[in-house]
Amino acid sequence: MDMDLILDRIEGMVAPHIAIWDDPFRILITGIMSTRTKDEVTDRASLRLFCEYPTVQKLAKASPREIEKIIKPVGFYKNKSKDIVSTSRIIMTEHEGKVPTTMKKLLELPGVGRKVANIVLSEGVGKDGLAVDTHVQRISFRLGITNSEKPEETERILKRRIKRDRWNEVNSYFVEFGKKICKPVHPLCDICKLKEDCKYWRENEGSN
Ligand code: SF4
């Protein structure tokens, strides 16, 4: 399966997902909130949060209880509120108020896993990153690119198969493709230009 062709075809079907922020700190904090939460819920909470606490300095001085009230109904909002405040404090005390720009340092921040770190690298600080979220994982599995259900393994496989200068395209296009066409339930295979290359289609629709 030619991954350049797969990416080109997806890009021919959907526009890229546009993040609500381009500032690395806001991307990071929104990423912490996003785990197991719908994008629409996360985005609304992020807007509310940065209206009240627009900077890392202000968030570092907040109490998690105050943040809880603002970001609810984000999933696991109590733990995430603690992570948001702790991460802001670490950025102030150990990184001079700036978001770290390496995977290693990002992973040391509370609430930050590989998905969030990759999003910060690719969308926030202009480095190469390939974030495997639920859409990237599902689509890669259906296409037969990965047999693993572990995002870390899928990230390794995708990074091996996709040229580095295209890593940053993967998440934004796969997310939109996953919302509009390769949906979690009832994917729209009839209109999908990847049918012939898709393991899921061959095993399900294609055998009818
Ligand atoms: S053919 Fe269906 S399952 Fe396969 S990528 Fe397209 S929409 Fe997803």
Tell me what you see in this structure.
- This protein is mostly helical.
- It contains 12 helices and no strands.
- The model has no long low-confidence stretch (mean pLDDT 96).
- The site of iron/sulfur cluster (SF4) has 13 residues, from helix 9 and helix 12.
- The site of iron/sulfur cluster has 13 residues, from helix 9 and helix 12.
List the helices and strands and how they pair.
Elements lengths: L2 H11 L10 H11 L4 H14 L3 H6 L2 H8 L5 H18 L8 H5 L6 H11 L9 H10 L7 H11 L5 H14 L18 H5 L5
Task: Report a brief summary of the structure.
The chain is mostly helical and 208 residues long. It has helices spanning 3-13, 24-34, 39-52, 56-61, 64-71, 77-94, 103-107, 114-124, 134-143, 151-161, 167-180, 199-203. The two termini are 23 Å apart.
Q: Say what the CATH topology of the largest domain is.
A: Endonuclease III, domain 1
Rg on CA atoms, Å: 18 Å
N-to-C CA distance: 23 Å
Element order: H for helix, E for strand = HHHHHHHHHHHH
Small molecules bound in the structure, each named once: iron/sulfur cluster
The number of helical runs is 12
Category from helices, strands and their pairing: mainly alpha
Percent of residues in β-strands: under 5%
User: How can the largest sheet be summarized?
Assistant: none
CATH 2nd-level architecture of the largest domain: Orthogonal Bundle
- Describe the oligomeric state of these chains in a short phrase: single chain
CATH class call of the largest domain = Mainly Alpha
Instruction: Look at the structure and name the CATH superfamily of the largest domain.
Output: Hypothetical protein, domain 2
Number of strands: 0
